[in-house]
């Protein structure tokens, strides 16, 4: 509705028409979760027996699951029970991680296809993914000896339903959960971290809802105010307008992800997780996402690792390393396929993630080859200070890195164009989502895929 206003009217209506309602709605949806996280944090400081602490976080986790999903939470509970049953029955096995991963993926696929309606299933996707990642990581840690023995049922359920992560994440390891239960003292550093993460989450929510969708007509008036008043903005033809609209969709999607990331930082830290300890110096330094590394990327490799840091660590530690025996390319594609399956059977997510697999791999090997040819610091990741490259800070080195950064922004805009804020992916039929994805990429002439193919051809030529 706000898109039909003139620029002056838009900025007059913005505070009460979008900013305030968005912030209020954001707080209304999560205030009970925040209170429960704080109560659990205070309870764990009382020096209670460990089983009481586990029970308290299970109770808090169950209550928050019911707040968000009501009786549909039973499907999350069933997944956790299935995982513990598997771990207990296979407690003498040494390949629990692989088999549990397959079991969890089968459960998720069956749930989406047969056990309940897709709409409600998709609403629980985030919590199911967190539960799945926790159980799978625990199984691999048991195989590798990181965790000595199968936890008791109450320990396992406490970890799975840890109130700070059960709704929005992030993934944390079993050992991190046990450290959180030790009940570290309240401090100004802890309070500052919680407050900053909360403010960042709300800023990102406001940008996603109130800034990004109106970026070019109002905040950066590319086409001018006259065109806005004529109501023809959405009818502008030409490739430039399509890319600008795609960038708006992409930016809105990005900041909705940052909102969830910072909110998960808030809840996890509020509940007592997310710290590192060095020589009795406690640092509340949990980091879930790095927006600047995504919006101004050095490479697509940097984007995928900065998008969700805990999930990136999970995939690298438990999927990529396990699949590395089949070769780097196979390991990369298995990792992205696993990520797609964890996110659910959705064509647009699967298409984006598999495309990312090809894009990041080809970019990585191409830049690695060019770095050897030119002996220059043009790798996907920034070189350490003592690298052996001869050309480090020459102008042409900067230009090559800037060119790859611009290419990464193009890829992000192209891939993010399918995440239209006007489309409710939990309500739409899969055929409609598939058609929408293909239509969006067709409008952009399949540019990113063609560019990726061109980069692969170039890589083969210089190999």
Automatic annotation (TrEMBL):
It comes from the Eukaryota. GO terms for cellular component: endoplasmic reticulum membrane. The keyword Acyltransferase applies. Coiled coil: none annotated. It is found in: Endoplasmic reticulum membrane. Its main location: endoplasmic reticulum. It is a multi-pass membrane protein. GO terms for molecular function: palmitoleoyltransferase activity; Wnt-protein binding. PANTHER family: PORCUPINE (PTHR13906), PROTEIN-CYSTEINE N-PALMITOYLTRANSFERASE PORCUPINE ISOFORM X1-RELATED (PTHR13906:SF22). This is Porcupine homolog. The lineage of its organism: Eukaryota, Metazoa, Chordata, Craniata, Vertebrata.
């Amino acid at each position: 509705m706000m898109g039909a206003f003139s620029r002056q009217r838009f900025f007059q209506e913005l505070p009460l028409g979008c900013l305030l309602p968005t912030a209020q709605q954001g707080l209304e949806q999560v205030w009970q979760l925040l209170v429960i996280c704080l109560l659990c944090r205070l309870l764990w400081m009382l020096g209670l027996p460990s089983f009481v602490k586990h029970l308290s976080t299970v109770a808090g986790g169950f209550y928050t699951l019911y707040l968000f999903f009501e009786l549909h939470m039973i499907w999350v509970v069933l997944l956790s029970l299935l995982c513990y049953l598997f771990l207990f029955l296979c407690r003498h096995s040494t390949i629990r991680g692989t088999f549990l991963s397959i079991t969890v993926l089968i459960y998720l696929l069956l749930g989406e296809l047969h056990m309940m309606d897709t709409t409600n299933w998709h609403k629980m996707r985030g919590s199911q993914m967190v539960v799945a990642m926790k159980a799978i990581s625990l199984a691999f840690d048991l195989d590798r000896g990181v965790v000595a023995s199968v936890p008791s049922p109450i320990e396992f359920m406490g970890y799975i339903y840890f109130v700070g992560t059960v709704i929005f994440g992030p993934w944390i390891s079993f050992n991190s959960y046990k450290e959180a239960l030790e009940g570290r003292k309240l401090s100004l550093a802890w309070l500052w971290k919680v407050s900053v993460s909360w403010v960042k989450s709300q800023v990102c929510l406001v940008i996603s809802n109130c800034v990004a969708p109106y970026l070019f007509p109002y905040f950066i008036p590319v086409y001018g105010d006259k065109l806005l008043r004529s109501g023809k903005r959405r009818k502008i033809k030409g490739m430039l307008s399509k890319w600008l609209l795609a960038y708006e969709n992409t930016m809105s999607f990005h900041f909705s992800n940052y909102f969830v990331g910072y909110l998960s930082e808030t809840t996890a830290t509020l509940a007592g997780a997310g710290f590192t300890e060095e020589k009795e110096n406690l640092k509340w330094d949990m980091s879930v996402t790095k927006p600047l590394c995504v919006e101004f990327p050095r490479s697509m490799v940097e984007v995928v690792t900065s998008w969700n840091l805990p999930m990136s660590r999970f995939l690298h530690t438990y999927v990529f390393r396990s699949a590395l025996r089949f070769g780097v390319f196979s390991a990369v594609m298995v990792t992205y396929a696993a990520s797609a399956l964890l996110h659910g059977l959705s064509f647009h997510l699967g298409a984006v993630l598999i495309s990312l697999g090809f894009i990041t791999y080809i970019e990585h090997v191409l830049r690695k080859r060019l770095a050897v040819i030119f002996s220059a610091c043009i790798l996907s990741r920034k070189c350490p200070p003592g690298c052996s490259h001869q050309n480090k800070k020459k102008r042409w080195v900067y230009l090559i890195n800037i060119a790859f950064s611009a290419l990464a922004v193009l890829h992000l805009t192209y891939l993010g164009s399918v995440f239209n804020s006007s489309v409710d992916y939990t309500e739409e039929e899969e055929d409609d989502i598939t058609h929408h994805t293909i239509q969006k990429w067709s409008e952009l002439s399949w540019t990113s895929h063609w560019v990726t193919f061109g980069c692969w051809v170039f890589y083969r030529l210089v190999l």
